[in-house]
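Lecture notes, unit on binding sites. The following record was shown on slide 14. It pairs a sequence with 2'-deoxycytidine-5'-monophosphate.
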Amino acid sequence: MYNIPVIAIDGPSASGKGTIAQLVAKKLGFHYLDSGALYRLVALQSMRSGTDFTDEIMLTKIARNLDVFFKGDKIFLTGRDVSDAIREEQCGIRASEIATYPSVRIALITRQRAFRQPPGLATDGRDMGSVIFPDAILKIFLTASAEVRAQRRYNQLMEKGISANMAALLQDIQTRDARDSNRSVAPLQHGKDAKILETTDLSIAEAMNTVLQWYAEIGTNSV
Ligand code: DC
């Protein structure tokens, strides 16, 4: 299990880490885990069931019993395709709030680690390198300016036909950054053992190639 390589890409909201991790996984033939999707699924299920979002015990129960199924880039919750629903801004905001509860985070640990399967895993989130896969072979902190991230999120939503407002998106991103970075459990932070990948001025292909190059260098250096 533990010699299965993990590439852990952590970073703030809308930094593009999901896109990059997914592309890296594809290039290397690795499995892919979008850990944020799990928090978004808990958020969606709690909204749909009318659960009080301050009820940590109920939220933990939802996290523990999530009936989720991943198929390609589609995500099914209790048999329904929720791939687009979990991307809505409201769901992301609620996910960020729910993610501050320690017992919700604990309830999702085993599910995340189960994605570590041969020949390897590329994953993205906030605590992939620090908590979930501390022995990841490559840890990356991927970031970009808040303005560029708001623009990327805007484009992403527009492509999906979801309406959005730039000023509101920027405000949400800044609020989410503050909450994800300042919470007491598993905060988003740049770990000392993570390489920084600043993508404000990089294309998706350039960012992906940098990650692949770093991974190849590890392979070369460890022979
Ligand atoms: O990556 P994302 O924007 O889809 O994540 C949604 C929220 O989930 C994010 O604001 C914080 C939380 N999250 C987390 O706390 N830890 C992770 N590993 C991934 C996401």
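Take-home: The pocket of 2'-deoxycytidine-5'-monophosphate is lined by residues 13, 35-36, 39-40, 92, 95-96, 99, 125-127, 176, 180 (CB under 6 Å).
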